[in-house]
Amino acid sequence: MNIIELILDENDEMNGIEAISVVSDPAIESDFIALANQEIKLATVDTEKRILMGAALIPNKHIYRRNKDKEFYIFFSSDTVNKASQLYLKKSRQGNATLEHDMKLKDMAVVESWIVSNPEMDKSKHYGLSVPKDTWMVSMKVDNDEIWNDYVKTGKVKGFSIEGYFADKVQMKSEDSELIEQIKNIINGKEKNSK
Question: What is the pLDDT of residues 146-187, one digit of tens each?
């Protein structure tokens, strides 16, 4: 089975992450946690923070893909994860969110972004998440009532999934050129089941 490294082509203006999707089945197999119902002692008012924290990209994790009769894995190196996280913010994409890669969402934004340098000392560990070094973590503020009440609180969505454009770094036989195009379409969000 082919293993394909996805990379950022820094000379291609289209490369990078376009949006972060909240999904029921994250391809990176890492659920987020909802920071909710936190008591804030300002005039003794209880309120919800409505923040989701989770991994956006985990380095070197093989992500299974199937397209028709072709099966393969994709992965991102630590270097690509780091570059992608920076480019996402440099291009001011933190307000781009979707539901299941299908529906654009309003009133949601990434409010915190970091690369895990020490998994044992990282903020994510404090909240019970266990991720490897060089993982890209994000916290997303959810001011969208429908998404918070109907999807987050009910557990319909469990994690994050990126949407973006990447180049591939793989040597394949010429007869597999159709597969390369299909892989690019999956990563570029042109298929509904992309994650």
Answer: 999 999 888 899 889 999 888 877 544 334 556 666 666 666
CA 179 to the chain's CA centroid: 23
Kindly list the distances between the CA atom of residue 178 and the CA atoms of 89, 145, 169, 185, in Å, as whole numbers in the listed order: 33, 42, 15, 11
**Bridge partner list, 136:** 57, 115
Token output for 93: 């994409």
d(CA 103, CA 183): 21
3-state secondary structure of 79: helix
Which letter, b or e, does each residue of 60-89 get, where b requires 16 or more Cβ atoms within 10 Å of its Cβ?
A: ebebebebeeeebebbbebebbbbbbebbe
DSSP state of 156: S
What 3-state DSSP class applies to 86?
helix
Q: What six digits make up the tokens of 111?
A: 């409010």
**Distance between CA atoms of 146 and 107, rounded to whole angstroms?**
10
Strand partners, 35: 51
**pTM for the whole structure:** 0.79
Strand-strand pairing, 2-7 and 70-76: parallel
